[in-house]
């Protein structure tokens, strides 16, 4: 059972309530595809991803980034039972999408950096710790149904 | 994942922009690492205070970032250039090389916080590759 402090709960709710999902989703996914180009393997039908500019301007990347970020909503709203909330998504990522779970960490790192750039000095070490703990729980739950 | 000529140019250009704040970046990256990854504190058990504002973190952050800035000028031969630092980390400090990735991540976060416009995805990938190559060079003498 994950134990959240008051600070951690408030921090996570705060970050996500103020977040522009369209922008952050697109930025995080695009950055992941640029910084870790092997992640492009999962998006063969996304069209032009030949360079950073193409990826940044790609509308399918933007649309999918939004989908992924809204997927995190489930965890934000069910912080006390992320494991259960993500059971189906975990099966999806394993059985249907065949995503190497290491990629969750890569996307998570890019998301952390995008959020850090947005929040600036407000992204203190303590806020970073809460955010990264939240992502770690999400990724562990997403990995749970892999076999 | 070796550094291309373009990677080196991008890293040098970006470092030119951040060099005046290098000490503060080093301090903050180290402070973030010690807070977000508390297991890294084991290497600093002799410090009275591992928080971001402590004198030890400030001084050591400056030392570490100074060495990294130095390495920007040695990108054509990181293994050779970092040989004695690798000896130090391998035999005296015995830092588990996994921690180099952790510190690198916190350097990237700090850069994003302070240079949101300049730390584009293209700069991010070049700096990430540089830090990875630096980490490999630092681990070169381990065994």
From TrEMBL, chain A:
GO biological process terms held by the UniProt record: hydrogen peroxide catabolic process
Q: Where is the Globin domain?
A: 3-147
- An MF annotation (GO) of this entry: organic acid binding
Q: Which family does it belong to?
A: Belongs to the globin family.
Q: Which UniProt keywords apply?
A: Heme, Iron, Metal-binding, Oxygen transport, Transport
Native source species: Sinocyclocheilus anshuiensis
- Work out whether the entry's keyword set contains DNA-binding: no
Q: Which protein, by its recorded name, is this?
A: Hemoglobin subunit beta-2-like
TrEMBL record, chain B:
Domain Globin: residue ranges:
2-143
Q: Which residues form a coiled coil?
A: none
Annotated signal sequence range: none
Q: Which residues cross the membrane?
A: none
- Give the record's keywords alphabetically: Heme, Iron, Metal-binding, Oxygen transport, Transport
* A Gene Ontology BP annotation from the UniProt entry: hydrogen peroxide catabolic process
Any one GO cellular component localisation term in the record: haptoglobin-hemoglobin complex
Task: Check the record and name the PROSITE patterns matching this protein.
Answer: GLOBIN
**Which top-rank group of organisms is this from?**
Eukaryota
Q: Which GO terms describe its molecular function?
A: haptoglobin binding; heme binding; iron ion binding; organic acid binding; oxygen binding; oxygen carrier activity; peroxidase activity
* Protein family per UniProt: Belongs to the globin family.
Q: What is this protein called?
A: Hemoglobin subunit alpha-like
**Organism of origin:** Sinocyclocheilus anshuiensis
What gene is it encoded by?
A: LOC107672462
């Amino acid at each position: 059972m994950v134990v959240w402090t008051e600070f951690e709960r408030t921090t996570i709710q705060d970050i996500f309530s103020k977040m522009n999902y369209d922008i952050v989703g697109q930025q995080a996914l695009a950055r992941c595809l640029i910084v870790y180009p092997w992640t492009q393997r999962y998006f063969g039908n996304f069209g032009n991803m030949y360079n950073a500019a193409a990826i940044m301007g790609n509308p399918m990347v933007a649309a999918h980034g939004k989908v992924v970020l809204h997927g995190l909503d489930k965890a934000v709203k069910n912080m006390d039972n992320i494991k259960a909330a993500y059971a189906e998504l975990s099966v999806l990522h394993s059985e249907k999408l065949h995503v190497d779970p290491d990629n969750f960490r890569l996307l998570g790192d890019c998301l952390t950096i995008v959020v850090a750039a947005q929040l600036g000095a407000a992204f203190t070490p303590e806020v970073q710790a809460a955010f990264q703990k939240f992502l770690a729980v999400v990724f562990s739950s997403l990995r749970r149904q892999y076999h | 994942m070796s550094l291309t000529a373009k990677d080196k140019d991008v890293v040098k250009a970006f470092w030119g922009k951040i060099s005046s704040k290098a000490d503060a970046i080093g301090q903050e990256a180290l402070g973030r690492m010690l807070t977000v990854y508390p297991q890294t504190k084991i290497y600093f058990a002799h410090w009275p205070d591992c928080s971001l504002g402590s004198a030890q973190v400030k001084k050591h952050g400056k030392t570490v970032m100074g060495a990294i800035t130095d390495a920007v000028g040695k990108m054509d031969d990181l293994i050779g250039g970092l040989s004695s630092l690798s000896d130090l980390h391998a035999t005296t400090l015995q830092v588990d090389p996994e921690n180099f990735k952790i510190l690198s991540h916190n350097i990237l976060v700090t850069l994003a916080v302070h240079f949101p416009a300049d730390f584009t995805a293209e700069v991010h990938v070049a700096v990430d590759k540089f830090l990875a190559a630096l980490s490999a060079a630092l681990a070169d003498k381990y065994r």
